[in-house]
Amino acid sequence: MSMVDEPLYPIAVLIDELKNDDIQLRLNSIRRLSIIARALGEERTRKELIPFLSENNDDDDEVLLAMAEELGVFIPYVGGVEHAHVLLPPLETLSSVEETCVREKAVDSLCRIGSQMRENDLVDHFIPLAKRLSAGEWFTARVSACGIFHIAYPSASDMVKTELRSIYSQLCQDDMPMVRRAAATNLGKFAATIESAHLKTDIMSMFEDLTQDDQDSVRLLAVEGCAALGKLLEPQDCVTHLLPVIVNFSQDKSWRVRYMVANQLYELCEAVGPEPTRTDLVPAYVRLLRDNEAEVRIAAAGKVTKFCRILNPELAIQHILPCVKELSSDSSQHVRSALASVIMGMAPVLGKDATIEHLLPIFLSLLKDEFPDVRLNIISKLDQVNQVIGIDLLSQSLLPAIVELAEDRHWRVRLAIIEYIPLLASQLGVGFFDDKLGALCMQWLQDKVHSIREAAANNLKRLAEEFGPEWAMQHIVPQVLEMINNPHYLYRMTILLAVSLLAPVMGSEITCSKLLPVVITASKDRVPNIKFNVAKMMQSLIPIVDQSVVEKMIRPCLVELSEDPDVDVRFFANQALQSIDNVMMSS
Amino acid sequence: MNGGDEVVAASADPSLPLEWRFSQVFGERSAGEEVQEVDIISAIEFDHSGDHLATGDRGGRVVLFERSDTNNDNSNGARRDLEETDYPMRHPEFCYKTEFQSHDPEFDYLKSLEIEEKINEIKWCQTANGALFLLSTNDKTIKLWKVQDKKIKKIADMNLDPSRTVGNGTIASSSNSNITSSCLVNGGVAEVNNSLPPRGISSLRLPVVTSHESSPVARCRRVYAHAHDYHINSISNNSDGETFISADDLRINLWNLEISNQSFNIVDVKPVKMEDLSEVITSAEFHPTHCNMLAYSSSKGSIRLIDMRQSALCDSHSKLFVEPEVAGPKSFFTEIIASVSDIKFAKEGRYLLSRDYMTLKLWDINMDSGPVATFQVHEYLKPKLCDLYENDSIFDKFECCMSGNGLRAATGSYSNLFRVFGVSPGSTETSTLEASRNPMRRHVPIPSRPSRALSSITRVVSRGTESPGVDGNSNALDYSTKLLHLAWHPSENSIACAAANSLYMYYA
């Protein structure tokens, strides 16, 4: 048996390991199925490898998943499109296994292969496959069937098309909710392939069944179907068929279904068009904004801006604004937070006057919210209001909010606000910034939490970039350098980090005259951690400063460090010295 | 009384009293054999078809049984129906299928708590593709198991002579895998790949797999952990086939079967201050058909029905079922014995069965003024509540079950006895059975309502001879042999019940 030529040995091993006891080896072989196929040649791949794989269907799920994926790109190895159909049988078995992810991958691969197959092969092989799966004994096969109808349908004859539609309609009424869910999920895709004449009759009746399903989980998928079908139907049909369904859904008994409507609202509005949206969906939306269930209000509040963009300003002010006002003092912090994240976008929709009159008080109250996320969400979108009303009006209330967030108990909140500082700085301008926020930026350098100190150092760099080296020389550098004498070495390390970040922005001259001396002093620190960080920093400074400065100031310092008693200090000092040599050699 | 005619008649008219017979026993104890704590059965559950039965024990094991009386043609329902009409005497018989270790003892280092491996509940999920799925839970962790027949394979016709690898011993087999990986890493395959002839290489062959027999293999598919601060008392599958709930003393969580790293809290009865705690959740179950409805019971004797459509957090119930307060003397024990230990929906979902310490109650979910019927399970214990409290027996959690047709209910008691009640209106059927090979051994027909039957029950309970002198001898009552767990076959009159480590099956 062991008559395998030496160069073939690896492939022989690979083939044998398709059946190895170790799952990792089997997986490995399956992942390299294309190599095996090329070694066997197209004909033997078709006649031996594929049937072999078809029988190999009770393996572990991981192996099956990998197989389902590989087979999806296997057409070249079986001899091209005209032989693509041989790949269907193994995928058919895979699409009825019990593990969901394997089935989904098999269906993906089936669709991928089906979309490349020749029309008559589809008729001969793919359509029968779809029918077989839909008649499967277990729900798993029927679930998979729902996902391939849109590939099977277009090439079928009229008679078969009628049959396929009726099969799909049965799937929509299957006993198993899993099958009905799959049918609901795939209805949009299937509908897109169907002639418009049948769309209005067959598909709409299937859709209606799904919208009235007992199971909430099916109905909520039907909500998504509304949006998909809306794109396919004529505008007037949308209004007659879809609009009532959407309005009904928005008053469904189950909050999950209403949540779905709120979530899909924009797509649904697109489906029915602007005019019916104004007349019929505004009341529905207002109901959702005032829903009993906080989850629904959260979803609805998040869509306020998108929805208002479809409406004209008058309608928005008349109907939506009162709800927005209510939501800004909602009992659920998550609702307020969702509102805060989008409400800024309403400013351009409403225009300057309405914004000042109606929105500004809401912004201000949200800025003072007790829940930090709400405040953060407002601050993060300030640029949008700025465009409409200017920052002056806002800044008075803005500042206390920022200061409060900057000192929040939760470090993640502080971190979030630090990240907005450069943005705020650019919007507020130098003058405003100097007075109020400068001190805060320095204060963060001495935060108890490392992430905050690190972010604070980064922040300084971004500010220096924003306002230029001259400003930084005046407002940042002296204050930072002062802190290098902090008794705690961790804070000194933060300052070193800030210095190393500032150096590239400040340029060679300032670095040499102001920053480098501080670093050199730090190299005499008693803590080894500081010392080897100095060595690392110096390495990063080499490209910034002049060659002569390197030789005069950096090298002696590093040489000294390279004789330090601490092994880490010596290591990094030597590394830095080496990179000085490298730079010299290359120049 | 044992006449065959009567049995046939009984199966013809479902409302006639049933004649129970012993069917099978698994793990029967021989005389004098000591019961190992780990072997004690702690959960019993039939699957939806009734073709499989699962038991869990205190040792964390799950044992599966398969119906064996249908000519191993379990999937073919139509055929079985035919057989049943031909042979009305045929009753469900089960055989051992497989067992696996579902849970192991663990230690929670954060809370310094030992987590027992004891299986608290088993629930079957939808069967798919011939593979069985079930959920099992201990106090903290729920697991989803897949049990599937795997073929035992024999592989032949390898490219490389297997004897060569074997000959080289262990080193060869381990180096075998190294060869592959090293070749792949070095691009060895890729080189070969480039030089492959277009027609392929004829000397390579695929392994030939021959399979002979198959054996069931259980694999843990998902672990739903870290969601419960307190002990899980029940799990229940939703009719939508994709979600389930798990209930502990204070909270009920909703899970998706596919997602094990998050769950949603839907009921939370934890008071702000734990000192204010006055009642705990004792059991919870989904409605069999309405995906949005679930019921949970409390230690105060109430059952709440909640509608998940109303809101995400269902702290406010949509219906409350509680026994109207009875005037009369209240004892220290009134509240303790009111605690509901188990609830079960009837198959159609209209009726709900609940068990508290002394009674079995049937509720109509459309009527919240009081139970439709109340059955005394062991009223003769009433004078002994004090003893029962002293030895903690009063906190025993008896389960209850209902027949598939909704006409009868069963629940357990002490001395390995269990009782079957006719629950349809007008039915006076009550029988007391002992979990042994001869369930009717001490059967004394109980005339009508149990209150009158007090003396006869004590006679039933008293072990041993029929001597009337035993009456009133309380020492005969064995509190340690309690029948807590039992299940009714979903479509036939067959009951599986656990007496310590033994599983007894009865049919009628």
Which descriptors would you attach to this protein?
heterodimer; A: 587 residues; 38 helices; B: 508 residues; 4-stranded antiparallel sheet; 30 strands; globular
Helix content of chain A: over 70%
Largest sheet of chain B: 4 strands, antiparallel
Distance between the termini of chain B: 13 Å
Structural class of chain B: mainly beta
Mean pLDDT score of chain B, rounded?
80
Query: Biggest protein-protein interface?
Result: A-B, 62 and 61 residues
**Shape of chain A, please?**
flat
Shape of chain B: globular
Give a description of the structure:
The complex is a heterodimer of chains A (587) and B (508). By secondary structure, chain A is mostly helical. Helix content of chain A is 77%, strand content 0%. In chain A, helix 26 packs antiparallel against helix 27 (391-406). With 508 residues, chain B is mainly β. Chain B is built from 8 helices and 30 strands. Chain B has helices at 4-12, 77-86, 162-167, 169-185, 188-194, 334-338, 385-390, 454-461; strands spanning 21-26, 41-46, 52-57, 61-67, 94-101, 106-108, 113-115, 121-124, 132-137, 142-156, 208-224, 232-237, 243-248, 251-256, 259-268, 281-286, 293-298, 303-307, 319-321, 342-345, 351-355, 359-364, 373-376, 400-402, 408-412, 417-422, 430-434, 486-488, 494-499, 502-507. In chain B, a hairpin with a 2-residue loop joins strand 29 (494-499) and strand 30 (502-507). The longest helix of chain B is centred in the middle third of the chain and has 17 residues, at 169-185. The radius of gyration of chain B is 27 Å and the shape is globular. Chain B starts with a helix and ends with a strand. At the A-B interface, helix 1, helix 3, helix 4 and helix 12 of A face strand 10, helix 4 and helix 5 of B.
